[in-house]
Amino acid sequence: MGDNYDNTLAETVVGLYKNECVKIDGPFRTIDELELATLSWVHWFNKNRLHSAIGDIPPIEFETWCYREINPRQQPLPGELALH
User: Fold this and answer.
1) Is residue 36 part of a domain?
2) What are the angstrom distances between the C-alpha of 77 and each of 23, 38, 66, 69, 70?
3) Looking at the DSSP assignment, which residues form a beta bridge with residue 51?
């Protein structure tokens, strides 16, 4: 069974999304406007946001570094096409 903290991370991200995307960029006139704003926010959140817990680098850079540490020969360089 779970406890009260199971959904804390998900609720935190949803709260960030609501505060940083919906409240700041809204109100939206159509669902399409909201979808485009959401896509833009998710892209920023994953690729550009500096994360203090991982050395003030974007999450995608940290993830790439981790994969290279695990298996340095099979990971493509940034901008290279992946084979998977």
Assistant:
1) yes
2) 37, 28, 13, 13, 14
3) 57
**pTM, to two decimals:** 0.65
| Radius of gyration over every alpha carbon of the chain, rounded to an integer in angstroms | 17
Each residue's pLDDT tens digit, 61-81: 999 889 888 876 666 667 777
In a domain, 27, yes or no: yes
22-53 confidence digits (pLDDT tens) = 998 889 999 999 999 999 999 999 889 998 88
Domain of 65 in residue numbering reads as: 14-70
Q: Alpha-carbon torsion 55, 56, 61, 62, what sign?
A: positive
Q: How far apart are CA 15 and CA 75, in angstroms?
A: 34
Report the distance separating Cα 21 and Cα 53, nearest Å. 22
Element (H, E) at 46: helix 31-47
Tally of structural domains, the chain:
1
* Tokens read off for 47: 């690729």
